[in-house]
Fold this sequence. Notes:
Blueprint: E1 4-18, E2 21-28, E3 37-40, E4 44-51, E5 60-62, H1 68-71, E6 82-88, E7 95-100, H2 107-112, E8 117-122, H3 124-127, E9 135-143, H4 158-161, E10 167-170, E11 177-182, E12 184-191, E13 198-201, E14 206-212, E15 215-223, E16 226-228, E17 233-239, E18 245-250, E19 265-275, E20 297-306, E21 311-314, E22 326-329, E23 333-339, E24 346-350, E25 356-360, E26 363-364, E27 373-376, E28 381-387, E29 393-399, H5 402-406, E30 410-416
Parallel strand pairs: 1-4, 3-8, 9-12, 11-19, 20-23, 22-30
Antiparallel strand pairs: 1-2, 4-6, 5-7, 7-8, 9-10, 12-17, 13-16, 13-18, 14-15, 14-17, 18-19, 20-21, 23-28, 24-27, 24-29, 25-26, 25-28, 29-30
The structure holds CU-O-CU linkage and copper (II) ion (2 copies).
Amino acid sequence: MDPERIFELEAREEAVEVGGRQVRLLTYGGSFPGPLLALREGERVRIRFRNGLDEPTNLHLHGIPLPPEVDAPHRVLQPGESADYAFRLQPGSAGTYWYHPHLHGQVARQLGAGLAGALVVRGAVDETVLAGIPEQTLLLHDLALGADGTPLPPGGIDWLHGQEGDLVLVNGAVEPALHLPATLSRIRLVNAATARYFHLDLPGAELFLVGQDGGILEAPVAVERLLLAPGERADVLVRADAGAALVLRGLPYARGGKKAAAEALPLARIEVGNLQGLPLPARLREVELLEASTAHRTRRITWGGAMRPLRFFVNGRAFDPHRVDVHARLGTTEIWEIRNPMHLDHPFHLHTHAFQILDRDGVPEPFRAWRDVVNVRPGEVVRILVPFREHPGLTMFHCHIVEHEDRGMMAHLEVLEG
Ligand code: C2O
Ligand code: CU
Ligand code: CU
């Protein structure tokens, strides 16, 4: 057998410097964000994870199509315990992913305290059409800190809207200065915040989307701005003049229930170097066409909630670790119609099985991509196509505003064989 790539990853509390201030965060490997794990399609990987915190936690590799035994979001690792996450990366999995804790009820606090890192899988497309384009991964996060420099756990109204910290960070830094060496460079963006939406632009540059979540697109798509809901990723080519000085900005976004900020927030300064960039690739790869007509059934998923006490629901019920909410059959494809009758945005996330977005309020998705997160706006109906091709077993889907997930907006899916 081919060799295994082995990574050691420890969750532990650590003093780190953020925005010129010493703070105590929960970290992976002592840094915030955690180390960037760079993997390759086809590779065998083993992540040796150790819980060095003084509280239980676990590890979730967000978006990677893993068998449920490996993903194991139900696992509870007590302080001092370790677990291995061993898997092989499938062909076609090149994309941008991330990792974070998934301990039900504690996700918002632990992720909000710093437990997040990016994970990049490279594949054939990175060695052919995208080869030679310099790239960077930017993990977006925010922190709410108390006067003593420790993260504030979510409280009160945070459980309703999701907690937004006022320190908005790119790779753990406030408004860092970044350098893109060439006039065509690539940035991979990860929204690792518990609840903050990042609505991004980069005036003075042209942006071309080349990937979303765990999937490379068929061809670059020119975009003016990007909206990343919590959990979402975007893989973008940036074209700008040599020597340009740019500012990556977070634009106001009125997510339901929350007033939009009054003005754009500078997130990072970007300096473009003098290297002549490669031409923009015309084609990237083939993305399989899934036909809605091949679906075996349509299933309705409805977001919901109740105020006193504050709970969030999927199809009228809060998460129950002992209940399976949805059964599907391996080898079938389903249309999921996700309805959001609430006045808050809720990003839908499905583990294990990548999907394609069919339409939003009846408007067909303009291009094909394999996704694992899709935002659902107030009043909106989003239809996705999910083929259950591999990885039978118990998995889950939830809102990726993790405060909502912790308060019940999660459900089990069991994919049965035969
Ligand atoms: Cu990013 Cu169920 O998680
Ligand atoms: Cu996930
Ligand atoms: Cu939600």
